[in-house]
Design goal:
elongated; 2 strands; 2 domains; two-stranded antiparallel ribbon; mainly alpha; Ribosomal Protein L9, domain 1; 107 residues
Length: 107
Amino acid sequence: MILRAEVDDLGHAGDVVDVAPGYARNYLLPRGLAYLANVANVRRVEQEKRKYRETLEQEKVRAEEAASAIAGAEIAFRMMAGEEGQLYGSVSAADITERLLEAGFAV
């Protein structure tokens, strides 16, 4: 059987697993969690895995490029502070995101 989704104690989507015929017939197949592991399906799964890995690699490259662009950026916040420099509020992730968007970065 080839899993279509993660199944507890069995495997992840795309894994080829060996299960009892009754488990496949009564649980996996009716719920759409797996399909038969014939030659065509195994090839299709391998092709899907290859495309997924390529997509992940492209996303990683884009994320690294964005991180290097943001790494050199400086953003400033004007906030109320006490006499000793202690802020009355905090700088949230939403505040940082807003400033980065204003500076022209895609977040």
